[in-house]
User: Fold Putative threonine synthase from Oncorhynchus mykiss.
Amino acid sequence: GAISSYSKRTVSDMQYCSTRGGVQGWDFQDVLLSGYAPDGGMFMPETLPTLTPDTLRSWSSLSYPQLVTEVCSLFIPTELIPRADLDGLVSAALSGFAVPGVVSLARLKGGLCVLELFHGETLAFKDLAMTCTVRFLDYFLRKEKPAAAIVLSGHILGTPVVQAIPKVLEALVGVDMVMVYPGPALT
Assistant:
């Protein structure tokens, strides 16, 4: 995992389990700080929240950062990240995008619409999730004060992502980064 010595805690109603079935009852912080499950699987929620039509209608007028906060609040209990902190983390994470709304809907001929997910630092849809993930990591690491390093494979991420990561991490004090490059070059 990302932090192999991290020990599991139990806090919230929203619990996560491994896709391989060997791990259950972990909370969001446990999952975020561990990376893969100890049994080699990926984490997923043990149950999914139910969204009513009324909830979806009420979300239809939200900005993208507000919507992200609402969705995150379903998976991250206030015991782990209080709502005001969650609002601030998501807002800070999404503040560096090239368009004010973070994502943009382009209307093309014939009623076709395209949702533009490339306005982040690396021009990839991954920016939408990774900017929030890095902020959540920093939040928990500042609280717990353990030393942490993120180990990333440059080969998998590609040159644009590798070049953008230092800028994303520069404001965060709880996270260091180590890049692993398979020689001799990146694709």
In short: Confidence is low (pLDDT under 50) at residues 1-11. Helices lie at 28-34, 53-59, 64-75, 83-93, 126-144, 154-157, 159-169.
